[in-house]
């Protein structure tokens, strides 16, 4: 992992704190400042800066290969494992640079949870899937774990369906259930931000509807960033929308506005399905 | 033509094994298993040999299993795509091709002489462990690579450290494959003769070994010793001992094949 | 927590480094003992003398007889293993049904798991007497019988490596050949085999390396008479069999006779090392071809 974060070079020891309040009195959960991302010689992200507001849903849209997944994965440093990855710029979580060398990546990922494109439950029981995040933190208190597992499953609206067979293999669940299990698994760690990388792309419409409902519900407590290639989905659930094209930020703003009256022609063309 | 060749090979194998059984099965008895070796063919048994083989099997496993799996994990999960890793890979590929008797020379100089272990079970087991290390490493890597990266990502995204992910997710998911490779490697070690002869395992050991620093013999060496004698009775002893050796080998391979089969079915994610 | 992770990584790295120590160890001990040997025996004699009699009173240290013995058994083994192994590979890959292949392959693998000492027994007790019925002048110990048996042993090795090479040829090539009206046979031998040639060459080289290093079959059935020549019917001795012969005897540590096994060992090591690296090099280059 060569994380070349130039911003955290010489002034690395000093953790910078930035004002988190904007003019409309909303607080920023996450701020990205002048982000460039490279895979080897290829530049995947070009100088993107944007702020993500507390307790809102921000959707990232754009044609495949535009860098939206790469961008999302910057927030929990999942790109660190990719060969040849390097970046410039800063990502601030509640004012603190998450690429600062003093940051404990494991702790960071407990605060910023992630749900993936394909449901990826562990080949263990339903219970153990949800308990995993707690167990790796060294928590041994059985009652506490059980209580948290139930609570998380309820939060993910899965509990009623699986309450009688928590010991069953997670892989035996349907795709939609598996994805909600993955949500419960993430929620059990009590993150404050949820990153979702096309969480419904592998699911049928009914499961998708359930997940969307769940996401909207979760907004009350969490800051959510979601990558989707489904335009309607972005329109239905998000408060703000980011449109990326070829690694560049084309437009970012209120979802309503982007979908009805975008500033850029390219956004208009993409949203109306003329390309992408 | 291809079918003929295949069948011919299997036929030859069948003739070989049939011949062995025909020659040796009459000599098999409880006495044969619990008798010490003797100058007289009909009084000789394979007690010291199979006890020696058992010792070697256990010690070799204890040494090579953690080393091989550890190295496999390192190369697959920690090793970066740099020159050092490439060098390690070429080196392992090379070691896999080094004739077993060369390992014997290594064991003779390093374990027997330099480390002063003498021609002991420990020296022999260390030698065989090095010999089968490349096999275990390669199969460990393959098994780990078969674990979907989505599992790894899910674990890491929940805040698990690298080792927590390896220990809690990757190893349990790849364990069947790793074990298959280890069993195959050990079964190879059990059949090895040349390196142990070079290390100094004896053809004639009057008593069964009591500990890892005792002198020893193993089944293949006992067989070699009997085959080398001109008297026909010893050849029969050899055939009988071969039946036992083949049984051990086939059982171990059978278990490995069965496990591989089961494991491949299980990881249908 | 982080300290624990670091320690674990160090431990695992050490496991990987054991393989490096092994290689260094092999090269060092062979080199050191060989240097000791060559300080007493001229390298010219070693490479040119046609007599190898270190254990006799009339001592002579020419490696050529051991090399010719090794060469002889290897050539015989390869001339058995390569055609048969390749034929089987082509059959399994191009002709056999999937189900039949699943039965045949594990059966063939049995050939590879039988311990070599058992093959030695086969060579001495079955194959030599059998060959004697055709070649009456064949000695009880000879190069022919262990060579053939070694070949049989290596067959699954050749066939599985060649099969891998064949199956990595893109299917489109086969379709194209069929599309032009070629028969199965023509497709197999004119299209598939040439397309997989580098992989097949790799399997042949590795098979040679395997045959050179094989020990027990020749130690049991080929005899212990270092003899410079290429007659497969008389007793000979290979490099490996010589090392076994000395190891079975009572040669005092540090004596010149003791050092001869390392001189023989380093010769063996150099040959197999070169062959293995050639095959590795070909494999690296060839893997890119179809990706």
Task: Give the helix/strand layout.
The complex is a heterotrimer of chains A (about 280), B (about 270) and C (about 290).
Chain A: E1 28-39, E2 42-53, E3 57-61, H1 68-72, E4 85-93, E5 96-97, H2 105-111, E6 112-115, H3 126-135, H4 142-155, H5 159-162, H6 175-187, E7 193-197, H7 205-218, E8 223-227, H8 231-237, E9 240-245, E10 248-254, H9 255-260, H10 265-271
Parallel strand pairs in A: 3-8, 3-9, 6-7, 7-8
Antiparallel strand pairs in A: 1-2, 1-4, 4-5, 9-10
Helix pairs in contact in A: 3-4, 3-6, 4-6, 6-7
Chain B: H1 2-24, H2 30-34, H3 47-78, H4 83-97, H5 100-114, H6 121-145, H7 149-157, H8 162-191, H9 194-199, H10 219-227, H11 232-266
Helix pairs in contact in B: 1-11, 3-6, 3-8, 3-10, 4-6, 5-6, 6-8, 7-8, 8-11, 10-11
Chain C: H1 2-38, H2 43-48, H3 64-95, H4 98-113, H5 116-132, H6 144-167, H7 171-179, H8 184-195, H9 197-213, H10 216-221, H11 239-248, H12 256-287
Shape of chain B: globular
Radius of gyration of chain C: 23 Å
Helix proportion of chain B: over 70%
Helix and strand succession of chain B? Answer: HHHHHHHHHHH
Could you tell me the strand content of chain B as a percent range?
A: under 5%
SSE pattern of chain C, N- to C-terminal: HHHHHHHHHHHH
Rounded mean pLDDT score of chain C: 90
The domain count of chain C comes to 2
CATH superfamily of the largest domain in chain C: MetI-like
Low-confidence stretches of chain B: none
Task: Please provide the count of β strands of chain C.
Answer: 0
Explain how this protein is built.
The complex is a heterotrimer of chains A (276), B (269) and C (291). With 276 residues, chain A is α/β, with parallel strands linked by helices. Chain A has helices at 68-72, 105-111, 126-135, 142-155, 159-162, 175-187, 205-218, 231-237, 255-260, 265-271, and strands spanning 28-39, 42-53, 57-61, 85-93, 96-97, 112-115, 193-197, 223-227, 240-245, 248-254. Chain A has one domain (6-271): Rossmann fold, CATH 3.40.50. Helix content of chain A is 32%, strand content 24%. In chain A, helix 3 packs across helix 4 (142-155), helix 3 (126-135) packs parallel to helix 6 and helix 6 (175-187) packs parallel to helix 7. Chain A is globular. With 269 residues, chain B is mainly α. Chain B has a single domain, classed as MetI-like fold. The longest helix of chain B is centred in the last third of the chain and has 35 residues, at 232-266. The mean pLDDT of chain C is 90. The two termini of chain C are 42 Å apart. Chain C is globular. Chain C has helices spanning 2-38, 43-48, 64-95, 98-113, 116-132, 144-167, 171-179, 184-195, 197-213, 216-221, 239-248, 256-287. Chain C is mainly alpha-helical. Chain C has 2 domains: 2-39; 64-287, MetI-like (MetI-like fold, Orthogonal Bundle). The chains are: A alpha/beta (276), B mainly alpha (269), C mainly alpha (291). Chains in contact: A-B, B-C. At the B-C interface, helix 1, helix 3, helix 4, helix 5 and helix 6 of B face helix 1, helix 3, helix 4, helix 5 and helix 9 of C.
